[in-house]
Amino acid sequence: MAAAKGACLNHVARETTDLKRLAKFYQEILGFEEIESPKFGSFEVIWLRLGPSFALHLIQRNPENRLPEGPWSATSAVADPKNLPRGHHIAFSVSNFDSFVQTLKEKGIETFEATQPNGKTRQVFFFDPDGNGLEVACWE
């Protein structure tokens, strides 16, 4: 039996050097809306929400942090979505898969599309502006 009761995903946090650029990307591409964010004083945040219960917390990167910001700033950068490490992504589902993929292409976002062997699940993989992996899928 799990120690937690009623657990559900609340939010995912991403650090970035450019809060506004990253927030705009998630708003334009996936339809997130900006919500009230706390004021921490020593660093800025932008909180976004998708639907009634999922939030994305964008946090100003600590300049003293020596860890890479994302795959693109790592020493062995991942530039091609078909090479996206399978454990490094956030996944979303959409009902308008074909038009969504077309919008990504129109915006110049490099994508990699796949269909699961069952033929019922279509996926597109791509990166946000900081190099974080994203998957958008349509489950039939």
From TrEMBL:
It holds the Pfam family Glyoxalase. Residues 8-139 form the VOC domain. InterPro entries: Glyas_Bleomycin-R_OHBP_Dase, Glyas_Fos-R_dOase_dom, VOC_core. PANTHER family: GLYOXALASE FAMILY PROTEIN, EXPRESSED. PROSITE patterns: VOC. Gene3D superfamilies: 2,3-Dihydroxybiphenyl 1,2-Dioxygenase, domain 1 (3.10.180.10). The lineage of its organism: Eukaryota, Viridiplantae, Streptophyta, Embryophyta, Tracheophyta. This is VOC domain-containing protein.
